[in-house]
Every structure is written in structure tokens, then in C-alpha cells.
Amino acid sequence: MSEIVDLPSWKLGTGDLIQQIAALIWLNKGDEHKDLYQKVTGARVAYELYTRLSANSSIEVFQNQCISGIVDYIKKNPKASEAELTKEVEKHVKIFKENIERL
After folding, report:
1. Do the Cβ atoms of 26 and 34 come closer than 8 Å?
2. Which of 11, 56, 63, 80 shows its CA 20 to 30 Å from the CA of 73?
3. Spatial separation of the C-alpha atoms in residues 19 and 8, rounded to whole Å
4. Per-residue DSSP letters for 14-71?
5. What is the pLDDT of residues 39-74, one digit of tens each?
């Protein structure tokens, strides 16, 4: 029995805890407290949607910047060696990665 209670999956993050408290209040005090649960759940869903939509658009912008930077280099340096091209691609991929990690 203690193994079930000690599972790491039982640990709640802040948002989960607040939502569970709201659900518990609703269950124990009745429907007049249902609106608290609805508001907490609505806020969490809205935040998650905003985060996903804004992150996806940012990723696309960073991806386009990376590709454009590589294409521009190739256009300006059509006779660049394979080593030079590799170095430039690595530079732009590194910038892309850093931008994504900041999201």
C-alpha cells in the first residue's frame, strides 16, 4: 500500500494542486462552489492554449530565420568550400537551438 502512495506520479504541480483544491471544495461544499472549479480549469486551459500557440509561431519564425541565413550565405558565397558551408550551417543551427531553448 505504501508503494502506491509514494509514487512520484502522485506529486502535484502548482496548477494541479489549485485545480484539485477547487474540485475538493466543489465536492464538499456543493454546486454553489462549482464556479471556482470552472474558473480555475478555464484559466489553465486558456494558458496552455496560449503557450502552445505562441511557442509554435515563434518556432516557425526561428526556423525561417535559420533557413534564410543559410540560403543568404550560399547566395553570397557560391564557391564556399564544404567545410565553410558546414561551419555556417552549424552556426545557424546553434542560433536556432539557443532561440528555442529560450522559449
Report:
1. yes
2. 56
3. 19
4. HHHHHHHHHHHHHHHH-GGGHHHHHHHHHHHHHHHHHHHHHHHHHHHHHHHHHHHHHH
5. 999 999 998 888 777 777 888 889 999 999 999 999
d(CA 15, CA 98): 28
C-alpha 53: how far from chain center: 9
3-state secondary structure of 81: coil
**What's the rounded Cα separation, in Å, for the pair 22 and 40?**
7
CA distances to 62, 97, 99 from 87, in Å: 19, 15, 19
Q: Give CA–CA dist 33/13, Å, rounded.
A: 22
| pTM for the full predicted model | 0.51
The label of the residue with cell 489549485 reads: 18
C-alpha grid cell for residue 70? 543559410
d(CA 11, CA 73): 49
